[in-house]
Amino acid sequence: MFDYIKGIITTIKNNAIVLDNNGIGYLIYVSNPYSFDFNQEYKVFVYQQITEDSNLLYGFKTIEEKEFFLKLISVKGLGCKMALPILAVGSIDGIMDAIERENILYLKKFPKIGDKLARQIVLDLKGKLEYIGVGITDEVVNCENELREVLIGLGYKEKELKPVLAKVDVSLSIEEQVKEALKLLLK
Description:
By secondary structure, the protein is α+β, with helices and mostly antiparallel strands. The chain has three domains: 4-60, CATH 2.40.50.140; 63-125, DNA polymerase, domain 1 (Orthogonal Bundle), CATH 1.10.150.20; 138-185. It is built from eight helices and five strands. It has a five-stranded mixed beta barrel with strand order 1-2-3-5-4. α1 crosses α2 and α6 crosses α8 (174-185). The longest helix is centred in the C-terminal third of the chain and has 16 residues, at 138-153.
């Protein structure tokens, strides 16, 4: 199993790229191949799908995209070829928000997602999507995780914390972060 492959983009197709790594060209299916630049080096996070008649690689620019893709394909009836276009059309935050709010209409806008599958996505993923941290540095995520653990230890629920954690200044000491979070929670 591969975690990522680092190499140079040698071909851009309508649904895939070819990434050259030491003379081996890996065909990797991606949500938006045109977000990659030809002849540039990339570190592509990959998921390998092995079935009885195929061995495919799906690629992602960030680890967050890959993690969200893995959550999507865990949904009953939602395979890799249906999950990839979801990432191409929607933002991870928007999709997560739609799932948490049970916004079936939003989910149905994606290709091949009907009413039944949209409801299955909500059923399988609602409440199970912890913060993925799109575009945020490891330091910020670590501070938020530490603050989250402290607040959960004080008896608060994950659902209550999501809107508050985004508002807390992570440059403060952990004690100051807790004070600021508690003020926001008590409003």
